[in-house]
Structures are given as C-alpha cells and as structure tokens.
Design goal:
single chain; about 325 residues; seven-stranded mixed β-sheet; five-stranded mixed β-sheet; 12 strands; binds iron/sulfur cluster
Length: about 325
C-alpha cells in the first residue's frame, strides 16, 4: 500500500484550538483520499486517518476544568452555525463552512490508540473529556462506532471521562455507559440552548430535536448514568427573549434538570466570519446588533451575559417552584 507523500502528510497536519500543545500529524495510509459515504451517509465524505496519539493534553493556559481530551472525529455533521470548532478544518485546507459539515476526518485507530495510551506507565488515569471539539455522537458514529469502543476501553480501565453531545445516538450505548459508570466516574451532558423549533432548525440543522435530547437525558439517568445539561449557547436577538428563556427553563425543569447556567454565544475570530455570513442570510436585521456586541471581543459584554443569566435563573426558579 502506497505511503502518503511528505506533502500529503503535511496537508494532514493540523493544530487544534483545544489541543494547541499537541500539534499532531495524522496519517492516511494511502494518502489523503476521501471516501464517499453510502446509504444513510451518502451526503457525507470520510477521510480515514491513523492518529499517532488520541488522548490529547489541553494547553496549560486553558481555563477548562479538564486536562485531556479525545476527539475521534474532525468536522461535525450537526452543522451548528455557531460551532467554535469550524476553523479547525482549515488546517486541512478545507473550509469552515460546508466542508466542516460534510467532510469528516475519522481517526480509525482511535480505540486501539486509547487502549494503548491508558495502559502506558506514564498515564496517571486523569479525567478525559469527549465532545470538546466535535460531537462524539455525530451521525458517522453510527457507522464507525469509535465512541462506543472508547467508552468500553475507558470503563474497563476505570478511567474517569465525560461526554458532551447533542445527539440521541448516545442511547445506543446505554449498556456500555451504565457499565462504565459502575466502574468509574462518568458524566454525560447535553447542550440544549433553545427549545424554539424555528431557532433549532435554523441554527443546529443536523441535530436531533432539543426535546428528544431531554428525553434521552431522562433515559440515561434511569440507567444510572450521571447526566446534565449545558444551556448553551444562547444567541443574542435570536433565542434570548423572555418567552424563549422561559420555555427553555420550563423544558429543563420538566426533564428533571436540577441546575443549569446559560452560556451566551462566544464568537472568536474565524467562527465570527462564518456565523455573520449565516446571519446575513437569515437575520440581516441583526447584523448591526452583532457588530456592536462582538466587534472588538469574542464574548458578549458582561451586562448582556448578566441580563440573560438573571432572566433565565428567575424563569428556572419559577418553573421549579411550580413543579
Ligand atoms: S454539535 Fe458541537 S461540534 Fe458539532 S457542529 Fe454543533 S457545536 Fe459543533
């Protein structure tokens, strides 16, 4: 089998936002050849690569609460318009728009690498976060089953881990998640930033409906898998009206969520351009507002964050009292 040329290998080198210290080459055995998806995956393309390392350290300057991550896929068919991982596709000379949503890099050796890495003497068994850059239960997990394999390996190794997802596909793995939760510390969470149908269809077109995510949350909990919700992102002018925040708070409380903090949209350079292009199509009237909020910064001003948090908390508390 022909090895990838140096140029082809160089093309596959990329540096990830949450893995800055771990710039790593990825190798496609036959060079960077895209494989067309078939059947239910026919609208996707896959680049199957072998990674040198799959458990990646988070840069020391990161404010994240975890020190290691696993991302078995790059690109995400969930296609959220605000996705902060979009620019990572540009390291592959792909674009952060359609390519990010349809051309998925698959680390086909992820399960075997994780098994080897957690057994290494130098590995101290620290918590590993999944879902930090792309969704581990995006559509192609139905085909490759890498997340399932990784969950099994981490459970057997009694290595704590967390999973953040927007997908109900996680229910396929109830058995291995419940078993892992008996062996080690496991935490799963769903991102649910809105329950407004229109906003969901527009801003997260490839994801399962947010109410189905909340149903999945209940099933995980029943199976003994600790789970929660990240109420994120709240999109200024799109999903932050009092009525929308109230509906979100009510849905979370009805799903048994005991606490949730809303997180307002974060638009760093690279993501901002993609998001504003989309906004110009769907809500051009909001461009001046976004220009004002995000022109000089990636985070919304504290006053806006505080207003949304206060509104959401009071709706959440009211929903809990009624319940
Ligand atoms: S599910 Fe997460 S990783 Fe996937 S597109 Fe949406 S925000 Fe990005």
């Amino acid at each position: 089998m022909a090895r990838a040329s140096e140029a082809a290998r160089a093309q596959l080198r990329w540096r990830l936002a949450d893995e800055g210290a771990a710039q790593q080459p990825l190798f496609a055995e036959e060079g960077p050849t895209w494989r067309a998806g078939h059947g239910e995956f026919r609208d996707l393309e896959f680049l199957e690569v072998r990674a040198q390392r799959v458990i990646n350290p988070v840069p020391p300057q990161s404010r994240m609460s975890f020190r290691y991550t696993i991302n078995a896929y790059r690109g995400c068919s969930h296609a959220c318009r605000y996705c902060f991982a979009r620019p990572t596709h540009e390291y592959l000379n792909l674009d952060a728009g359609r390519d990010f949503e349809r051309r998925i890099v698959v680390k086909v050796n992820a399960v075997e690498r994780v098994r080897a890495e957690v057994q290494a003497k130098r590995w101290a068994g620290e918590l590993i976060a999944m879902g930090t850059n792309t969704d581990p239960y995006q559509r192609c997990e139905g085909k490759y089953r890498l997340t399932r394999g990784i969950v099994e390996v981490l459970g057997q190794a009694r290595n704590p881990f967390s999973i953040l997802t927007k997908s109900t596909l996680i229910l396929r793995d109830l058995d291995v998640l419940a078993e892992a939760a008996r062996q080690t510390t496991v935490h799963t969470a769903f991102s649910v930033g809105t329950v407004d149908d229109e906003v969901w269809k527009l801003s997260e077109p490839g994801t399962p409906h947010p109410r189905r995510r909340l149903e999945a949350l209940a099933r995980l909990r029943e199976a003994g898998v600790p789970t929660g919700v990240l109420a994120a992102p709240i999109l200024p002018g799109i999903s932050d009206s009092p009525a929308q925040l109230e509906a979100l708070a009510k849905a979370l409380v009805e799903a048994g969520v005991e606490s949730a903090t809303p997180i307002v949209l974060h638009l760093r350079p690279g993501v901002r351009e993609e998001y504003l292009r989309w906004l110009a199509d769907v809500r051009p009237d909001l461009l001046p507002k976004y220009e004002e909020i995000y022109r000089r910064r990636s985070y919304a001003p504290k006053a806006i964050q505080a207003e949304i948090t206060t509104r959401f908390r009071s709706a959440f508390d009211a929903a809990r009292r009624r319940r």
